[in-house]
């Protein structure tokens, strides 16, 4: 067992810096059933650091600051039911990019959307 990292954590975790971290935490909880593993707030109540469990992965995020400005990224996430996940995302305020489809020669059914912070999420279920 590895002692250099928390139990059940991957060695590599995406770290998102966003303008409204709490809004994104709420959205990821609603869309992906994410759970908060650890959270540290700044004195003003903004999120300094939070770790979310999404299935077998951990992502980390924080509120942007002058020293660490917000920036957007793209993430790919395999989910058990891409259609249900995509619908939940749109129903929870995510902006659609492309509805889930299966392209010829691709074993994945894939859709995509932007989250509240403008990050591009691609969600897939392999057939």
From TrEMBL:
It holds the Pfam family Glyoxalase. PROSITE patterns: VOC. Residues 8-126 form the VOC domain. InterPro entries: Glyas_Bleomycin-R_OHBP_Dase, Glyas_Fos-R_dOase_dom, VOC_core. It comes from Terrimonas rubra. This is VOC family protein.
């Amino acid at each position: 067992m590895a002692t250099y990292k928390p139990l059940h954590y991957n060695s590599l975790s995406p770290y998102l810096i966003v303008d409204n971290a709490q809004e994104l935490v709420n959205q990821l909880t609603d869309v992906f059933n994410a759970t908060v593993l650890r959270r540290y707030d700044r004195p003003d109540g903004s999120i300094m650091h939070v770790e979310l469990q999404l299935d077998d992965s951990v992502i980390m995020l924080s509120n942007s600051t002058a020293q660490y400005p917000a920036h957007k990224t793209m993430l790919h996430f395999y989910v058990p039911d891409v259609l249900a996940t995509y619908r939940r995302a749109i129903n929870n305020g995510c902006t659609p990019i492309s509805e889930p489809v299966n392209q010829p020669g691709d074993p994945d059914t894939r859709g995509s959307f932007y989250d509240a912070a403008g990050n591009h999420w691609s969600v897939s279920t392999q057939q």
